[in-house]
Amino acid sequence: MTSEAIFLARLHSEDAVLITVHSHRGSVPREAGAWMAVFAQNTEGTVGGGHLEWQATTEARARLQGKSGEPLLRYALGPSLGQCCGGEVTLKFEAVSAVDLPRLQVEFAATRAHWPHVALFGGGHVGWALVQTLARLPLCVNWVDSRDGIFPEPLPANVCTEFSDPVQRAVAELAAGSHVLVMSFSHAEDLDVVAACLARQRLQADLPFIGLIGSKTKWAAFRHRLQVRGFSDEELAHVTCPIGLAGIQGKAPEVIALSVAAQLLLVMGSSALTGEKT
Q1: Quick one: average pLDDT of 185-214?
Q2: Domain span at residue 171?
Q3: Which of the 8 DSSP states describes residue 225?
Q4: Which of residues 110, 125, 143 is at a domain's end?
């Protein structure tokens, strides 16, 4: 389960103080919108760790016990906090309970609407390992396969599944701006999905990344077949194959998943991954 799901589930039976990074100046550990929920015994999420988070947690627990206080508190990240970031963070403290669940669910859903989209074609071992890795990131994942009943349950909250036969038919309905990863059980399906992505890119130019799992040999074969289908060298340059960070050689699904996820983060850039609750 994601931190958001755990927080909302616990809130059904236990009150909390929700701490949000309201604003910041200079060098700070987390961006505006980052949050943590403080319960009587545990916490969920993070506003940056270290002494800042320790003080914020102490303040939140005091408020859980009835202490009153201003909703906004400013923290200078200097010697007084035992930190040397040098910036300044203003945290918002908000007492929440089960009564607030409908509002919080709407707010979290509104935040997710601005998350980057990843379209993952293939429900095999690497696909499942990648879904588990991406589930902890502020991303919306559309997981597609042509085999009915292939997806495991339960699924993370930020993952939706789609059965599509033929599998490439799903390409036309992808959200604009989707980063596409192709790793189906069949090379024939992989080729059809890549071709559909390139055809959409030719018309709409709205798929910023098309990644294909496989070796350089596989890509050489695919490149020739795609040229026969009429795609130019310039269009084919939009496909990344192999995928994953260079230098990571492991072939276990979990290793590949981490490598590919790291590559996605680099491609998207940090500005696209601040889709936290605001």
Answers
A1: 97
A2: 116-273
A3: H
A4: 110
Q: In this predicted structure, what is the pLDDT of residue 79?
A: 57
Q: Which two tokens stand for residue 13?
A: 């039976």
Give this prediction's pTM.
0.80
pLDDT at residue number 278: 36
Residue 158: alpha-carbon gap to chain centroid: 8
Nearest to 17 by CA among 50, 54, 58: 58
**For strand 43-45 and strand 72-76, is the pairing parallel, antiparallel, or unpaired?**
unpaired
Take residue 92 and report the two structure tokens written for it.
């918002």
pLDDT digits (tens, 9 = 90+) for 121-156: 999 999 999 999 998 888 999 999 999 889 998 888
Q: What is the C-alpha to C-alpha distance for residues 219 and 176, in angstroms, rounded to an integer?
A: 25
The CB-based long-range contact list for 257-262 (8 Å cut-off, 24+ gap) reads: 257/126, 257/129, 257/130, 257/132, 257/133, 258/133, 260/130, 260/181, 260/211, 261/130, 261/133, 261/134, 261/137
pLDDT tens digits for range 67-84: 999 999 999 886 555 555
What the block records as the tokens of 16 is: 């909390």
Looking at residue 98, what DSSP letter applies? G
Same domain? For 164 and 257 the reply is yes
127 residue type, one letter? G
User: What is the residue whose two structure tokens read 């026969």?
Assistant: 228
Residue 19 per-residue DSSP state: E
The identity of residue 117, as a single letter, is H
Given this model, what pLDDT does residue 198 score?
Answer: 98
Give residue for tokens 């098309």. Answer: 210
Q: What pLDDT, on the 0 to 100 scale, is given for residue 72? A: 96
Q: Are residues 43 and 173 in the same domain?
A: no
